[in-house]
Amino acid sequence: MSEGPDRKVYVDEGEDFSSLQAFGRRVVTPVRFSTDPRDIGWVKENVPCQAACPASTNIPAYIHMITEGRVGRSYELNRIANVLPGVLGRICSRPCEDACRHGWPGNGKPVAICHLKRVAADFKPLGHRISEDMFTPTSKRVAVVGAGPAGIAAAYDLTTLGHDVTIYEREEKAGGMLAYGIPAFRLPRDELDVELRNAVRLGVDLKTGVSVGNSEDEVKLGSLLESYDAVLLATGCMAASPLPLETASETTDPVMETPGAEYGLYFLMELHRGLPKTVGRRVAVVGAGFTALDCARVAKRLGAEEVTIHIRTTEEYIPVTKEEIFEAKREGIQILGLRTPVGLLTGPDGKLSGLRFVQNRLGGWRAGGRRQAIPIEHSEFEEPCDTLLLAIGQKTVNDYLDRPLDLDRWGNVRIGDDGMTSVMGLFAAGDYVSGPSTAIEAVGHGRRTALNMDTWLMGHARRKQVVKIEPVEEPLRERHFDFIERQEMPCEPVDKRVEKPGTEVETGLDMEHAREEAKRCYLCYLCYQIDVDRCIYCRACIEVAPRDCIKLVEGVAIKEDGSYGELMETREWDRVGAIWVDNNECIRCGACYKVCPTQCISITKKEMFHQDIGGGA
Amino acid sequence: MNDTTRYVIIGNGAAGNEAALHLRQRDPDSRIIMVSAGKLLFLNRYRFPEVLDGVFDWREFLVNPPEYYIKQRIELRRYTWVNHIDPHNRTLEMRHKEKVGYDKLLVASGAGGYLPEYLGEYAPLLHDFNSLRNAMEIRSALPASGGKVLILGGDIKGLDLAHTLVRGGREVIVVASEHLFWPHQIPREESGRYIDALERVGIEVILDHKIASIEKGAKGMRARRVTLDNNHELNADVVMAFYGLMPSLGFMHGAGVDIERGLLVNPQLQTGNEHIWAAGDVCQIWSPEENHYRFYYGWKNVKMMGRIAAINMTGGDEAVDTFKEDRLFINEQDEIDSTFWEYE
Asked: Is residue A541 situated within a structural domain?
């Protein structure tokens, strides 16, 4: 922009910068950092992907970096929110894509946010260096129990905040469910190991093969509480939920006692510990989550001929990505709905020979868009199978505790707003608090808890949530980007997958397709605003708008946090109070910005992240 | 405001048309809107194999003459897709951004051929048999006489076509899957006599082998080359997949109705939403006798569902007889036939 002043002025909050503006030119607002709840509210409302991400990843920013070819920067932007981008770029449950504005009715498919995260990790330049902002040492010592995603994310943040962190991990390797639950064909172990290593190498003392518990050779929780300033429990949900089968009682679990029947969680964990695992010819998997799907796909790779997943509701309502279901089906796995197993059938040799099910119908809605399944009386039926893998859920294990903690009715630990349990100095994060959730939720919760711990340890907050507001002098998107179709993930051919069971199934987008995909992002963090004082109501922007995105309004609702809510549209000229860009419709094509004769339309970039108090951005 | 009821029917097939006919009879003053993805009027799909014998005029296949829709006051909207249904405002949101309101909605969008996911990548090399255009494409892919057709899967629709092809002097090979004789489930020990019947009329049946790959044939060879899992190669002019039906339901997600494979309905054909009914191949009906949701395919069943849905949409109370015996048999022409597949 030739006439636009080439200056980015940094000012502190509250400073008067009106003198920096000039008449007759585009009014350029300097870069500023805001903690105003209205700005934070704006980002939460208008950047749906970031709001949906449990780790609050600045998604439009990293996607835009891919469009610009700055992949290393894209990786770093990811890493600010989530210390394992290459891992989550493969196995994330993608709440962001469900929220993506591009996926709203009439807009097509959501942007492949997760695939692009993987692109940032895969294509960062050779020799890419990670930059870390480190606080000075605080000499506070923190112990973290469990090296899963929550524990690792918290340990990393606590280290950058200057604390000395020790992780106690019961298994031989770090990673938790990432290393012991998810098969290598979804998450290659070298990718996982590199990012785990990067997370702990700032000084975390990672003690693997050391378990915390009450027996003699185990470390006692009490001794950790004595020798450390704070302790974080991030032990996840490491017990499989049982199924109320006909023959089950308080003391007997038919799944554990019948040869051929097994819990999916333990099956996968033993497999990843390196134990030899086998399955029969016909494998029945019961469950509807990622673990069930993983069990089925592993069974196929172990040579099962017929693999069937039995679910209580229907495919539409199971909490896994559609792509994962499709790939499983391509591998020849069948999914059968509306059935709950009620009993195990055994042959004369005592081995599992089949399952007895009851037919269900769909009932009311449950949280998270899921449905209830209501069994129908007298509708039992039987189906043969040689192996049963039961993966209907996971729960916390609490027998390693040596003191009573306040638990809820599911056995999850209760924490206060400050992340602390009922014991002073003892914090908890991840699935151990929330019950079984996803890797990204664990990472997000781990980080939030680390900040809470830091505040408690230091006596004051040292990081705050801010919105960086920066003027943008050109539209970063073009109209025709709207017509690009979603780039689908290329996969290995099905026959190769069984030949080499460890081969990663998804081969990843290449850079060319990644850039095309990145262009699809609506860049919702760009805020188009019309300066009503300078607008001459010529309607040029409305004429040129590709959609119904610029509206004549008589007023705007103000929400509780002070941010703008719903627009009150009008068609009568004498009632028009303002002309307004509707962020829900805006595709950031810049057509209005270019056509405006008075240059009263401005674009600002609003990015939300945590900023060190007293430090720079 | 007027108080005529606005019926919207999605689908212009056997179920939809039968329903429209009965809706008009039972509610003469109503407004009936039919939404169809096809460009043509309601054609009789059962006669599409005739295209292979040289019948090309689409008018030959019309079930009702074009005037019928005017006389019956049915607003037929062809070449139109529904994107989404808003059950709260009772509107269909169309792909061309129009909104169409309804008082009572009948979903009769039918079903398309199911292609197993592992064959998905070969879809561009397969011929469909869902429309008149498909039939014509097959006809032009075959030489004037002779020619070789490979039928994968082998459901009843496929076997029906196989018989027509063999009668027309074409060579037909069926690569059987677990969908052989679909929708009938024939135990292995009984399937022998049906397979013999196929072979007696000259249809070759390959059992117990899966498809490893499908490729374009080399120059001078037949247009497609199919490799089986035992590395055996088959060459054919046309390869078609017949693995049963999959309801066409994408647009119903988010409409607040229950879906398993099809739209789940009670024997009165009503979905969980009091303003939405379903009929035809798209619906999975609760069978109180069998304690199970099941499909009922074929012309007769589908027409019956259209009629029952129309009766219930206009205040009647009639239930589908869900206790139906389906069976496979060998007819007088020594061809395999099904009670499901009987036409009129």
From this structure: yes
Tell me whether A108 touches chain B (CB under 8 Å): no
Q: Which residue of A330, A337, A379 is in closest CB contact with B118?
A: A330
Residue B250 sits in the same domain as residue B300:
yes
CB nearest A314 (choices: B84, B120, B260): B260
* A148 and A280 belong to one structural domain: no
Is the distance from CB of A299 to CB of A279 less than 8 angstroms?
yes
Q: What is the mean pLDDT of each run of 10 residues along chain A (617 residues)?
A: 44 50 54 91 94 97 96 96 96 95 89 97 92 92 97 97 97 96 96 95 95 94 96 96 84 90 97 95 95 96 95 89 91 93 94 94 81 89 96 93 91 93 96 94 97 96 94 90 92 86 92 96 95 90 91 88 85 87 91 93 94 67
The answer to whether the CB atoms of A495 and B212 lie below 8 A apart is: yes
pLDDT number for residue A27? 54
Whether residues B104 and B131 share a domain: the answer is: no
Are B291 and A359 in contact by the 8 Å Cβ rule? The answer is yes
CATH number at residue A575: 3.30.70.3270
Chain A: closest CA distance from residue B119 (Å) = 8
Q: Is residue B324, in this structure, part of any structural domain at all?
A: no
User: Which residues of chain B lie closer than 8 angstroms to A338, CB-CB?
Assistant: 260, 293
Query: Does the CB of A359 have a partner CB in chain B at under 8 Å?
Result: yes
Tell whether pTM > 0.90: no
Domain that holds residue A202: 141-238+396-458
Confirm whether B323 is domain-assigned: no
Q: How many domains does chain A have?
A: 4
Domain match, A78 and A178 both: no
Same structural domain, B82 and B123? no
Domains: count for chain B = 2
Number of CB atoms found within 10 A of residue A314's CB: 21
Considering the domain architecture, whether residues A388 and A402 belong to the same structural domain is answered as no
Residue of B nearest to A373 (CA): B258
Q: What is the DSSP string of A286-334?
A: E-SSHHHHHHHHHHHHTT-SEEEEE-SS-GGGSSS-HHHHHHHHHTT-E
Cα-based distances in Å from B107 to A17, A458, A478, B86, B270: 61, 63, 39, 14, 10
Are residues A314 and B84, on separate chains, in Cβ contact within 8 Å? no
- Shared-domain flag, residues A591 and A533: yes
Q: Are residue A491 and residue A449 in the same domain, yes or no? A: no
Query: Which one-letter DSSP state was computed for residue A476?
Result: S
Q: Report the C-alpha gap between B45 and A314 in whole angstroms.
A: 31
Return the structure tokens found at B65.
């003459």
Check if the beta carbon of residue B320 is closer than 8 Å to that of residue B308: yes
Q: Which of A315, A331, A376 sits opposite B291 (nearest CB)?
A: A376
- At A28 the pLDDT is 55
Distance of CA B133 to the CA centre of its chain: 15
pLDDT at B324: 72
Which SS3 state, helix, strand or coil, does residue A221 take? helix
**Substitution target from B291, B292, B322 for chain A, most A beta carbons within 10 A:** B291
Q: Does A197 touch chain B (CB under 8 A)?
A: no
Among partner residues B84, B97, B293, which is closest to A338 by beta-carbon distance?
A: B293
State the DSSP string of A153-199. Answer: HHHHHHHHTT-EEEEEESSSSS-THHHHTS-TTTS-HHHHHHHHHHH
Give the Cα separation of A453 and A411 in Å (integer): 23
Looking at chain A, which residue has its C-alpha nearest residue B251?
Answer: A105
pLDDT score of B53: 82
Residue A616 lies in a domain: no
Domain range enclosing B188: 115-243
Residues A286 and A146 reside in one and the same domain: no
Average pLDDT, chain B: 91
Of A314, A425, A27, the residue nearest B258 (C-alpha): A314
